[in-house]
Amino acid sequence: MEFSSGFKPITIQPQEIESKSFEIIKEEFGAHDFSEAEFTVVQRIVHASADFELGRSLIFHPQAVEAGVRAIRQGRPVVADVQMVQVGINKPRLEKYGSQVNVYISDPDVAEEAKRHNVTRAIMAMRKAVKEAEGGIFAIGNAPTALLELIRLVKAGEAKPGLIIGLPVGFVSAAESKEELAKLDIPYITNIGRKGGSTVTVAAVNALSLLAEQVVE
Amino acid sequence: MEFSSGFKPITIQPQEIESKSFEIIKEEFGAHDFSEAEFTVVQRIVHASADFELGRSLIFHPQAVEAGVRAIRQGRPVVADVQMVQVGINKPRLEKYGSQVNVYISDPDVAEEAKRHNVTRAIMAMRKAVKEAEGGIFAIGNAPTALLELIRLVKAGEAKPGLIIGLPVGFVSAAESKEELAKLDIPYITNIGRKGGSTVTVAAVNALSLLAEQVVE
Fold it and tell me: How confident is the model at residue B27 (pLDDT cuts 50, 70, 90)?
């Protein structure tokens, strides 16, 4: 097939754009208290959102990055709350370690059980996920109800995630769900406030898989 | 399957959360110059980002909403620049009108041609898209190079989109590409600045398909 049309192509390449972007972010971000590894995650999130306020609102459990890197290297699954998070995550980097991304929200049995128990599919998806993804990374970018359910399951001793990335966005329950997450003493990455979303959740997971490749323990 | 565990379920339902969120957004947004239909799109974008600054930075070509609604009702395709945009878009609402969402960036022929011409896959995907999606809605949330190429093709008379939703996010070329879009005299929805992304682009398309269902002409 021939799509070209004789015009001068735009020659700036994605790699070039990315490295220039990261320079700008570092420069404009200014002083902070994040560790070097944490800041790698912060930078990717700012890169995905162009939002420094969101970047500065991030909070990390002290073991968060280490736990995320370990989960990936051990080939633990990543659980995405919605399909947008699943498709955005870099799969080849995870597959090198035998890790994959699972999403349960569209499973027929989840829909059925949600109806039967009169709860959201997001909640039921978490109940299924914790049974199948012990030690995995739970990446929640959309549904506060999913995050609240996951927190409940952790407290009840029914879930043992390796890391929770809790970055749902929204005006109802999102900020509250993240406050609850930040009270847990298990590895988490979250933020203060309403902002978040699928793209920044993807950015966090992708930052961790890059760190898994790069960081020498 | 039985995922339930005897705990009190969280009973707030997605519909309830959504309508409460829209009330909050309307209240906090304050005075603005958007038309009623435009504000429906703005509200969905703020809902997806929790970012009023982003909402206020949106700009609409005077015919934008009308053109988007018409394209959907006529069953024109929606072209997404990346898979995250594709999966986020509400399909059943488009399918009622015979419209669907196409994404070209992962097509093997696009990859091949991009390599041969030494341009990004995002650019080559647009060259393929304009041949297959005349009159459609081009929804670009990720790649500024895709938007710049689409603008070039419009100027060259090689592309006739029904509506361009140009909301790429980023630090290099994103803001510039949107400035260029806003100079065109064809229907567009875009914003000023670096912010944007897949989730807000999805929100714009979903707002238009809701309007297609609701608005009486």
Answer: very high
- Global ipTM: 0.91
Q: Tens digit of pLDDT for each residue in A36-87? A: 999 999 999 999 999 999 999 999 999 999 999 999 999 999 999 999 999 9
Residues A181 and A122 sit within 8 Å (Cβ to Cβ): no
The H or E element that residue A80 is part of is strand A78-80
* Rounded-to-integer distance, Cα A109 and Cα A15, Å: 42
Set of chain B residues whose Cβ sits within 8 Å of the Cβ of A195? 49-51
> A117 and B4 in contact by Cβ < 8 A?
yes
Decide if pLDDT at A6 tops 80: no
Chain mean pLDDT for chain A: 93
Return the residue in B3, B85, B115, B149 with the most chain A beta carbons within 10 A, the one to mutate for interface testing: B3
CB distance from B10 to chain A under 8 Å?
yes
Catalytic site residue A47? yes
**Is the pLDDT reported for residue A180 higher than 50?**
yes
* Chain A residue closest in CA terms to B111: A1
Pick the CATH number of A59-214 from 3.30.70.2730, 3.30.450.180, 3.40.50.10230, 1.20.1250.20: 3.40.50.10230
The reply to whether residue B1 touches residue A170, judged by beta carbons under 8 angstroms, is no
pLDDT tens-digit map of A114-137: 999 999 999 999 999 999 999 999
Closest partner residue to B1 among A4, A13, A113, by Cβ? A113
The class of domain B58-214 in CATH terms is alpha beta
Q: Is A15 on the interface with B (CB under 8 A)?
A: no
Query: What is the token pair recorded at B109?
Result: 């022929």
Q: Are B153 and B99 in contact (CB under 8 A)?
A: no
Return the residue of A nearest to B167 by Cα: A49
